[in-house]
Fold these 4 entries.
Entry 1:
Amino acid sequence: MTTGFDERYETLGALRAKLQTRLGFISSGPGALNNRDLMNSFLQEGHDLICEEVDVKAMRRRGMIRLTKGSSKYDWVNDVLDEDIDPTRVESMWIQYGSDDPIKLEQGISEIDRAQIDFLSFPTRWDNSASQIEVWPTPDQAYDLIVWYVAPKSRFEQDADRPSVPSSLVLMYAIAMGKAHFRHPDAQAYGGMFERRLRTFKADQHENQRHFMGGSGAGKRPAQVVRSANGYRLRVG
């Protein structure tokens, strides 16, 4: 079963196959290995650039951890995405009970609280204890713990790795770079498409505020794929 995350953040392997197809290469079988490293480099370069450009809101995650009766400590892992959570990047925690609105937990558990080891109830507080999430009181039944956090830039090196930003943006950048590298005549058009999509994505992160790559959009030149000493790159403005 796929999730919205699966659809929006495709794996490096899936993106490479799409990129090879869009550039006119074989995307499966032994022949696909011939340009594997080059295709990966286009995708990884796009991933790095986009992560540097977007606001941290684009990296926010809504994690879920299943609490069980009688257990007060849990690993820092988002059960939905099987992704580690950095406790220093946690924004808030909430308890979901049935169909009621989630209830926000307060951070901090005192030693007096912890001394009540036999007290089982609806959790109201949380803390980071011995590299685990600790909730108090100890759950009296199963609950869903919702964790809002900012994910670090994910590893994007192995075929099963997923990017930290929407894969459609990563793929569009890679197509523009690939077309420039292989001297396709429509490389500039794809560079412009990438710039527009990135600008829209950045604006969405700030709701109704308008933001442009590199500052104000007034007098800016269209995005261009240019050649440099280190190969091709996308120049905006």
Note: The first strand starts at residue 60 and ends at 67.
Entry 2:
Amino acid sequence: MSSSLNAHLVEEADSRISNLIHKTPILTSSTLDEICAKKLYFKCENFQKTGSFKIRGFLNAILKAKESGHLKGVITMSAGNGGQSLAYSASKVGVPSIVAVPETVSITKADAIVAYGAELQRCPPNITILEETCEKLAKDLGYYYVDPHSDYEVMAGHGTVVKEFLEQAPDLDALLVQVGGGGLIAGVAKYVAEVNPKIKVFCIEPEGKDLQSSLNAQVPLWEDTSKMLNTIADGLMVQRVTEQSFQVINECCQKRTFSVNNQEISNAMLLIMQRLKVVIEPSAALGLAAVLKYREELKDCHKIGIILTGGNADLNKLPF
């Protein structure tokens, strides 16, 4: 794992993975623009390999580890998308993989992880238990633990999504980015801060995360770092943000965090599926949910970028 995160690390990651992933398109909708009184640009990572942006970070980290020496196997913890990305990446480099998942993981995502070739380790829905399971297995088996939220190579790989985004839509005023454990927002915010700091990067969270209090204090305030949120956005269930990610958020993002609840996420998800004609999972809808709820606070931002982070929805259990 690299010791710091910067735009150069993102560019290195882009060179490493660009020929192995999809360059995803941007979609727009005149109806959604009219509803929001904004010009919205939706980056379709739901069309990405394994169905989410997470292949970018996991593939970069695993390829970098492979370059650095012998790689016996890989392991991570995941609510679904990261696990699929790890399993797919491991299969491409020819090593075994294990994914520790909460017992609440959706059947759709669990089945996909196994289909990509990984072994599942089911755990209680508790971050500490998931982390300890990964660390013990990594030590016992000699596997590389790919930390989804603290590994700078993962963050750099995730940051390639905004490098690509800005090549396709260079004149954005703002980016609204979902926050789970913090890997995506860290990679995106650090790259934007160094390459085009005029673009405002806002954090969007599921209700109950309360990132705002920590930003106000400028230090992480989560006392129970094992807690998972009760949210339909299953890719964003982690309540705490890691120390590494928080430092980047505090340095590079706007100090105003936008929070949305389950009903607002559900409404935005339905609008996106109706108007853009694409399948997304609830986590991908937070950006639009935030624009709809906070459009007055965003009155100075006219061209807004939103990342549709994933499309691995359980179509038998849609929230609307």
Note: The beta strands are 26-27, 39-44, 74-77, 97-102, 119-123, 144-145, 174-178, 200-206, 257-260, 303-308.
Entry 3:
Amino acid sequence: MEGKRGANGVLVELLRGIQNQFSGSYAVYAEHLGRGEIIAFGEVERPFETASVMKVPVLVEALRQCENGIHCLDEPITYLPEDFVKGSGVLQHLTAGISLPFRDVLTLMIIVSDNLATNMAIRTVGLDAVNQLCRDAGLSSTQVRRKIAFDSPDPLALSSPRDLVELLKAIHRQTLLSPEYSAIALDIMERQQYNTILTRALPYELLDDNGDDPPRVRVMSKSGSLTGVRNDAGLVATPWGTYAIAIMSEGSTDPRFHVDTEAQVVLPAVSRAVFDHFVGDAWARETDA
């Protein structure tokens, strides 16, 4: 499927040209939350392997349980041997048996994509509860199937670009969480340190604070990576409006986990194309003034 709804032909041709430079395939779905304008390219309703983007519904369900008094952000969560997993993050290098406040576990899960912290969070809130959250949010293509382990060939989790945008919209519009807990979710997501797709090609002068606190453009996102898979989904808040965007990809022939792996060179151009379409003209007018 290749949609032009809310995107002109020039943008579609640009996105098609990016696809032609990529050994895998990608889909992007984005919505301007003020105008309701939608950009859709590729199979935006098909489930893709999420990789670590699945940590967003885990985060939201954990915060929902804290809001409802099932758990609390100050509650100590203990690292058990059964939580151990390699990959991204820092807790794998620490000693089993330590305890961290639940807020810190969730923060590590998102900002450094800590896999072990993710398993601690899933054990605490339960997979069934995470998937019930997805159903409550109307995410028909989304399912978190298991805790993180690399000895299984089965997908860790599935979702579609459209589902991820719907989840981001729900966080932004505070329909799943109260204003207080929605703000906590966005604060954690804004501090993500793997800014290699959505943020990489955006105008640096808008992302750098340059004395502005906060910066003029703020990205609240979560990325994910597996061999041949690179995804990123987030909210981009600008002076000219906020939009939600999800880019999902698969099948890249570049197996490297490197800042310049193929997807992390090609896909930032998709993010920049969406940015330019939604807000580029307004930014250009301001720059020229």
Note: The chain has one domain: 9-288.
Entry 4:
Amino acid sequence: MSGMENDGIATRRSFLKSGAILAAPLGLAVPGAALAADDRAMRLARLEDEAAIRALHRDWLVRVNGRSVTADLCVSARAAACLGDEICGIIQDEDGVVEITANGERASGYYPCRIETESRMAAENTFAQMALAQGGGVTRTSEPRLLSVEYAKIADRWVIATVEAGTA
């Protein structure tokens, strides 16, 4: 081979090597872009789930305060009645915190609030009997609590699994 042919081969090899070196970052960028798009889609889905949970919680609060909680917001009728009959109102102090599990199937919500309870007097004496007969005889209290709510995603719809009113 003459020197000229050798130079041509070396030039072609250098060209191919530098082309491969320049193309390598582009090959890595495509999966990175796909991962970024997947990450954005996951974050959007999380935000949508959190918004749906907060809307469900607001609807539930309205129903609790109107004394008309129905099982359509809850996993079961037992979950709908989990706070008991003595609770007559919940005043939420803050938005609270919502935590969604990694698989997106369950979530927990923690809400500082004031819970109003109502209890009827026992008709043990004449005064209590008169108060009950006139529509009174009810004792109301209000105390700070931390509402802990567990949510479940069933058929792409969030529902309430359990509700507990712990001490604040």
Note: The first strand starts at residue 87 and ends at 92.
